[in-house]
Task: inverse folding
């Protein structure tokens, strides 16, 4: 999440350093962070994320911070999908007393487009049918990692989100919204997703 914009929009002032923890985990020695926190009298850590899908990416970072920095951690996702809620509820239980999990807007499973027969909502069922019908045009070539309802890993219960953020579109949103296919497909996404990884 672009934390500086969050601070600005909410009028939050305070500590000058507001690092992103994903690169810190890769490039920083935990001892340096502990030393910084000690010298500035910081006893707790708040980690925020704008959107959490299954929790795969953020849970590694939250676990790392909780285990390596030797302080209580509060994790606050602004929007979180049901699979992520389940993953972080389990993680908070495992790291009891050290990790507190407080989502702002947990999404309900009924807000997702499910495969045929997976939702009682007639509109969402029609969207699932549409996503399946146009998937070959959207995907372009058959080796795409996205199914008609978006990216999912084994065990995920929800996919087919209709979520678009100002910074990017989550990969578990419907591909017909975000997937910009390569030739021979000519599909042009309304809200193209920019992946972190090179395909």
Result:
């Amino acid at each position: 999440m672009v934390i500086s914009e969050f601070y600005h929009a909410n009028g939050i002032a305070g500590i000058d350093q507001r690092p992103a923890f994903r690169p810190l985990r890769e490039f920083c020695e935990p001892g340096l962070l502990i030393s910084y926190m000690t010298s500035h009298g910081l006893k707790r850590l708040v980690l925020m994320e704008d959107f959490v899908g299954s929790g795969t990416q953020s849970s590694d970072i939250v676990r790392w911070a909780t285990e390596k920095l030797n302080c209580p951690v509060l994790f606050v996702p602004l929007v979180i999908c049901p699979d992520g809620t389940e993953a972080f509820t389990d993680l908070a239980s495992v790291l009891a007393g050290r990790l507190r999990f407080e989502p702002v807007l947990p999404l309900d499973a009924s807000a997702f487009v499910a495969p045929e027969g997976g939702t009682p909502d007639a509109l969402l069922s029609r969207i699932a049918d549409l996503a399946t019908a146009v998937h070959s045009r959207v995907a372009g070539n058959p080796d795409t990692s996205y199914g008609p309802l978006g990216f999912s890993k084994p065990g995920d219960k929800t996919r087919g989100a209709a979520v678009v953020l100002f910074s990017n579109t989550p990969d578990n949103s419907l591909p017909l919204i975000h997937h910009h296919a390569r030739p021979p497909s000519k599909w042009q996404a309304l809200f193209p997703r920019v992946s972190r990884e090179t395909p």
Notes: The chain has two domains: 3-106, 109-178.
